[in-house]
Structure formats: structure tokens, C-alpha cells
User: Fold this.
Amino acid sequence: MTVRDGFQPVKSAGRTLEVLEALAAAPGQQSLGDLARLLEIPKSSLHGILRTMLQRGWVETDPTGTRFGLGVRALQVGAAYLAADDAVSLLDTVLDELAGQFGETVHLGRLDGPHVVYLAKRESIHPLRLYSAIGRHLPAHATALGKALLAEHPDDTVDRLLTWPLRRMTPQTIEDPATLHAALAEIRDRGYAVDRAENAEGIVCVAMAMPLRRPATDAISLSIPSARWDDAVEARIVEALRAAAGQVRAARTLVTH
Assistant:
């Protein structure tokens, strides 16, 4: 446990949140032993936490009662977060327009420490497409969404945000600090980020930060299989994202004045 500003975190609350985060990070259900080893919590203590969470609907079990996964209460809280988020509601129409224009996967992402998390998405109309899910966390340095948002910060802030060494997702993932700094400088100069199979093999993404806050915390991306990608497609996407950012900027001006 860490202490900040004299505050001592409540150990039991911290452990409960660690269980929720561990269940959210891994697909499917996990055994008591796996969770105990991952979280370094004694089985007896973890069993009591899981039984309490099970009783409240935060955790569900398989028919044997030995494997655990997230319960319906987690879905309710996540849905409530999205429903109350102004950025999600403001950008909803923008996502629809981009999906309708390109027929490709569109994501709204938010920077969350060293990660980017998907807040909303629109599915591609094509059978060949990127798999993704709302709520999924990905390393910011390996995604167009994340790089577009990291570029909103100076390099020293970026270095503090990220977890080093950088996680390698594909052979194309940027791992070197100097290479990442150069890439972010280019993004700041041109105004958008590109991920060329840095997160998923065979997928190219283009993203642009949306001017809702300063520095921006939210970005929109389009993800396209490399088989449907060329320079003309990139140019059309960049033009559409710039138009979307202008639309968001105008809406924000109307709301704040």
C-alpha cells in the first residue's frame, strides 16, 4: 500500500477493488487459487471477499462454485458511468456519422494512466474487422488512440505516465523512448496519430484527439484491415476526423458560451 498526503488506504477496500480489476482484466472466469496467486492475497481472506461480492451480485460463479467472474452489478455501474459521461453523449452522433461514411470500426477512447480504454464503438460492416470491446484497456503507446492522447502532453509527462519497459504487442510496437518521443513530436506537428499494426497484426488505425478538454483526454479512431488500406483511404479518414474535431469544437463553444 502507498501513502499519499498522509492518507492510509483501507486495506479491505483496496483488496476488493483489486479483485474487481483482476476479474475485469481477464476474459472468462478464474479460480480461487489463480486469483490468490495473482493478487498475493491469502486464500482464506480472498474467499471471504469473493463470498461477500457474490452475495451482492458483483461476482458470479460457475456451476461448481469454484471459478469466479464479474457479476451483473459491474455491468450496471459501467453502464451508469457511460450514461452520465458528457463526452460519450456529445460524440455519439460523430461516431455514427464516421461509421456511416466509412463502414469501418470506429472507437472513442480515453487515456487512463498508461492505457487507453474504449468508451464507445461502432462495428465495421465487413466480416474482416478488428475485434474489440467497450471497457477494454490497451497500452497507450501501442495504439493510435493512445498516441494521439499522449501527444497532448510533453515528453517528461509521457515518461511518467507510461509503464517501462513498454509492452510489446506486435513486432511493430514502439518500445524505445527516443523512437516514441519522435513519433509523438510528429503527431503534434500533423495533428493525428497512425498505428500501423502496432497493436494488432494486419490492422491500421488513425486517431485524432477531440478538443473537449485541454489537454484532450478523449480521441476517436478508425480501424481498418491493411488489405483495405492505402494512402487515399488515410487522407479521407484524416479529413473526416478533422471535420469531426471542428464539429466538436463548435459544439463545445456553444455549450460553454
Notes: The beta strands are 30-31, 59-61, 67-70, 105-112, 115-122, 137-139, 193-196, 203-209, 218-225. The first strand starts at residue 30 and ends at 31. The first helix runs from residue 11 to 25.
